[in-house]
Structure formats: structure tokens, C-alpha cells
Amino acid sequence: MLPDISVVCDKSKLRNKRCYEAPDLIVEVLSPSTARNDRLLKRNYYERAGVKEYLIVDYQYRSIEKCKPRKYLPTRRSLLQ
């Protein structure tokens, strides 16, 4: 899986410009062609991999969903606020 943005806070996870453990934060920006994959497949994959936080940016609806492990229940925030 290749996320749009990944954040790694622990330098020990990085070797040779690659991340060898779960990133601390992953951000996916939805597009009509990737929305289903980002919301379902990638979300489940990242949860199993141990990603601490997962953001889904939906520019069409101007919102960000913040998902955390265990249940990955989304919390939607409007970008207009």
C-alpha cells in the first residue's frame, strides 16, 4: 500500500529512506476512482498493520474523517469551520 501522505515520528522505524514499521499517521485524499478502496480496503489494512491514526480527506465534500485503531469509527469535520 502506498498512502498519499505518511508521518513517522520514530526515526528508528526508518532505514534507507523507507519505513519498516507502521507509520504513526496516514492521510488519504479521496478521488472518485479511489474512494471505495481508501475507505474500505486501505482502512482495514492500515488498522491491521498498527497505524495509530488515519485521516481521509474528501475535498468534494470539504471534510476530513479522523479514524483511530480498534474500531476505526470516523469522525467527520467540515473544512469550512
Structure report:
- The protein has 81 residues and is of the alpha+beta class.
- It contains one helix and seven strands; from the N terminus they run ββββαβββ.
- It has one helix spanning 35-49; strands at 5-7, 14-15, 18-19, 25-29, 53-58, 63-67, 75-78.
- Strands 1-4-5-6-7 form a five-stranded mixed sheet, covered by helices on one side. It has a two-stranded antiparallel sheet with strand order 2-3.
| Major beta-sheet overview | 5 strands, mixed
How helix-rich are the residues, as a percent range? 10-25%
Biggest sheet: strand arrangement? 1-4-5-6-7
Rg, alpha carbons: 13 Å
Characteristic key phrases:
single chain; 81 residues; alpha+beta; five-stranded mixed β-sheet; two-stranded antiparallel ribbon; 1 helix; 19% helix; elongated
Blueprint (SSEs and pairs):
Elements: E1 5-7, E2 14-15, E3 18-19, E4 25-29, H1 35-49, E5 53-58, E6 63-67, E7 75-78
Task: Provide a short characterization of the protein structure.
By secondary structure, the protein is an alpha+beta fold.
